[in-house]
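During the first year of the project, the team set up a workflow for recording each protein of interest as an amino acid sequence followed immediately by a discrete structure-token representation. This format lets reviewers and collaborators read both layers of information side by side without switching files. As required by the reporting guidelines, we include two representative entries from the current panel. The first entry is reproduced here exactly as it appears in our internal archive.
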Amino acid sequence: MKIGVDVGGTNTDAVVLGMNGVLGWSKTPTTADVYSGIVSAITEAIADAAVESADVDCVMIGTTQFTNAVIQRRSLVPVGIIRLALPATSAIPPLTDWPDDLIGEVGRNTHLVAGGYEFDGREIAPLDEQSVAEAARAFRQSGLKAAAITSVFSPMNGDMERRAAAIVQNEAPDIEISLSCELGQFGLLPRENSTIINAGLSRLSCHVVRAFRRALQELDLNAPLFISQNDGTLMRADDVQRYPVLTFASGPTNSMRGAVYLAKIKDAMVVDVGGTTSDIGMLRNGFPRQSTNFVDVGGVKTNFRMPDVLAIGLGGGSLVREEGRMVGPDSVGYELINRAQCFGGDTLTATDIAVVGGWADVGDKSLVRADQATIKAARASMRYLLDVNVERMKTEASDLPLLVVGGGAILVDWPVQSASDVLRPEFSSVANAVGAAIAQVSGEIERMVNLDGANREAILDDARQEATDKAIAAGATAASVEIIEMEQLPINYLPGNPTRLRVKAVGDLPI
């Protein structure tokens, strides 16, 4: 039996999942200290399931705490930045195109030193160890507690980054160090951005992971703890403390995976309707389609493994104006239960329209002040928003079913263009927690290779085996591991026409 938890900006959801599906669930407000909200949610879910804490085999938690910290510019620490690249890359320094307010949080503590690799593993220049040591001493004198080290093509060879980290640690033992080679994927600037953000979240990650562990201790849950990462799989709590950026976008991913699990299908479009926005995505074989573009987080381009999700300004708290002709993007958000008319407030929202229109049963529809013309116009506005944007997210001519989940799923009760059917699965309001509970663990590799007729199959077999070994090292049982993605992208603009190879394996936990 597993417990899945999703810690959102407004609500903390929990489910108890057994062999036959959801046994119990709860939805409680997220608290400032994080842990007490988790304690309340899990306690209520266990009570609803009528089970004992001793029966729980594993706890999986998804969180938006780290994403929100970057977007809201809070809980970040200043970062010392070292790029190993000279004499290359000096034309575009670190923090290029970053928003000024975010730079104000992490600071401009940047040092470019000699080092780095070419795409084929040859050195651009030997590592300038003296300059690295000087940078580390400058960080220590400035009182910095976090550092980010990035080298050109370090996913091919991370030795220089690791040597630089050892030098920094020797000069400044108290600094938490993030290495770009451990965050993966090619593309210097987005990878460097990701590494800087990761370092900036180092203090918050310690606080959040401690809160998770404290919650389990208070609940007397002696079960392994895993955290959702943004590709729909799990990582150990210790790894989250080191790599908090890998949890970005885990919320939409969990919701989408939870949706197809609840609906007992594997291929579908999904819309996760929240209080302010709706996230639209597509799943194949039970996993979200991944974005092929660099992902913007808080105004910064990153290389995170993000699901391809389109967010639109339609949610349960969306404001209804101009006699229903305009719905959203402004929203009352988490204040819905205080400000919506159906709950005794004075603001007309999308939820009010659904209630007074007769397709949602919450609050008191007699309190809603909207005539039939406004109801009709607002419904048409919401329908148009969803129809157009579901069509935008399609990648093929055939229609797939559309699964509607999330706390605002009550808004949608109409047929949607480009969808073969519209389904609202049971327990759809806590699909995000269900997605956390069913998640697997993964292993992934990415590298530049030269594929020719003689070595092609051997190289691919080695890559499959390495990804499989990484999944097993992450906690998967060997018998359950399968390769779910193998991407081969020829890079024709580089000498020798190398291929960018990415392989991903997933497997089940032994519980």
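The second entry, processed by the same pipeline in the following quarter, appears below.
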Amino acid sequence: MGYLITERFASHVLRVLLIVLSGTPLEKQNNKSTLHSKKKEKVGVPGSDKNSEQVLGERQVPQSFLSALNKVIHDSVANLDTNYLRMLATHPTGNPTLQLMLKLELTLFGKSRAKDENSIIHKLLPDDPIREGTGSASFINGLVYDPVGSRLLETILENAPGKLFKSIYKQFFHNRMGSLARNEIAGYVAAKILERLSKEDLADATRQIIEQIPGLVERNRTSILKTLIERCVARGADTLPIAKQLEAAYGGSNGFDITRVLKLGDPPSADGKANSKNESPQSDKVHGSLLAQTMMTVDGHLGNLIFESFTKLGEQLTLQIARDPAASRTLQAALASPHATVMFRRKVIQQFYGHIGELALDPVGSHVIDSVWQGTHGLAFIRERVAEELAENEAALRESHVGRAVWRNWRMDLYRRRRHDWVKASRYAAGNEGFQSFPESNGETTPPTQSRKNSDHMTALELARKRFAESKAAKAKMEADKAKRDAAQSKKENKKEDKTE
């Protein structure tokens, strides 16, 4: 079993066996580094849908599976001493297998497993306590900046018992968070540390990282900033100092510049070709987009930096963002954000007027048009204006696969056949918040009664149900009144008979 850990092909079989026995999910996003090699063959099943790749979700497994898993892990490392295990930490093939074993050992068999002398974590870090000058300290310091070994250190920091994590953090990383964040490799280790810090330790780490924000922005090390913001939100920490530093780091002639965050190059030339002179790598664009999306989840100054910068962009830059694969994600998130104001959404969406049809036919821009539906909540008249422009481009949309998806998502068939029903349903879905009358009315509408106001926002089916319920209630009331009158009449006649007798 120990030999299989480093064997080029058998290590993959061993990892899958561990996943099957443990019942943990076999999903790309969760186990990419421990199950798939970077040069994984793109093998598919002929005739199958490429987009629906089979995944193995979390499963309940019998106790015998866990016993077998425990035996496999034990037998794999039983004959390996501390020095050999530490060599596996930097081995390209052995490291992912060791990561998976360590994670399963600590998550499935309890944190107390770290005290077992035969456990992986104890063999890797046998010194107690771990201090400078010990073998464990040299091992940890050697992993921080190693491209392969740092992944094992991330796994240790993520799954180690609380006491062990605090000991490692206080001893090695408490005063180094700023320098770790600067480094391309150690930055991922710092992100894992941030995820487990208490509110007090997080505040101290935030102060160290904030000082490095100008350098981090210059080097495009934005993933650590994204994690820092997420942890501040989770712990209820103040994000205003982060916002001020980001505002200064991404500042432009008009203040905070969203185009610098999204790494947009020069706008396309007159012949429609993109200028690649100042084009940033796609990975930098993705990291910038993820940072901007995270900023918008914070209600306050941090999120307002993104919203205000979007409103200052001209039509050309807004359209360029809508067509960019990474940047458009930020625009979609902005239109759907619960923190976005009605005024912001109105200003941004109105910049698409005259370009709705071409964006709906664009593989990237079509997703922005889909998000406009949600972005027009409280702006029913703008929703109708966008639908009108889509209707004008019906022929082109129906001929395009992308266009047909937009047409379906906007329920344009209903708009074409029964526009009155579409308008009612649309205005009901858009809500009354910030609602304004259609421009054709010029504001010459009489204030409707409360009952009429409510019925204007109901579909035909809802109106029919309401009328049926009202008629049923009226009928029941009439029957109750009749029964009451009959009872009174009967009582009156009984009294009359009593007097006669």
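For the second entry, the following points were noted during internal review. Residues 29-33, 269-274, 432-457 have pLDDT under 50 and may be disordered. The chain has 31 helices and two strands. Both points are flagged for discussion at the upcoming steering committee meeting.
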